[in-house]
């Protein structure tokens, strides 16, 4: 009874995460963000789905095979995602860097003002040294 409930919860959460990854693939603007959405949800969602199936089938040879599959996925998914990103970057694909974050504009303004004050300080120091 409890194992069936845990199995159902794992399958439900895995399905929801799969749907969020699909939405991320459709909504994100460029290759790198889409790949990030797919890889993060793929790793966790697939593991939850497989764990749900393992709990549903009980401890059999099939469960051992599914555990081996989870182990392979934990190693292979991040490695494959990294290889795809490197291949895209080497192929000339660049990430989209424009943001609509108001905090990034404030940060840029603060950096510019600190750089201009440093330049003023340097010119004041060099002016004093030349006198």
UniProtKB/TrEMBL annotation:
Record bears the keyword Transmembrane: yes
Keyword entries, A-Z: Membrane, Transmembrane, Transmembrane helix
One GO molecular-function entry: sodium:proton antiporter activity
Transmembrane intervals: 6-28, 35-54, 66-85
Biased composition (Basic and acidic residues): 117-131
Residue span of region Disordered: 99-131
Ranges of compositional bias, category Polar residues: 101-111
Name by which UniProt lists this protein: Sodium:proton antiporter
Organism expressing this protein natively: uncultured Sulfurovum sp
Classification lineage: Bacteria, Pseudomonadati, Campylobacterota, Epsilonproteobacteria, Campylobacterales
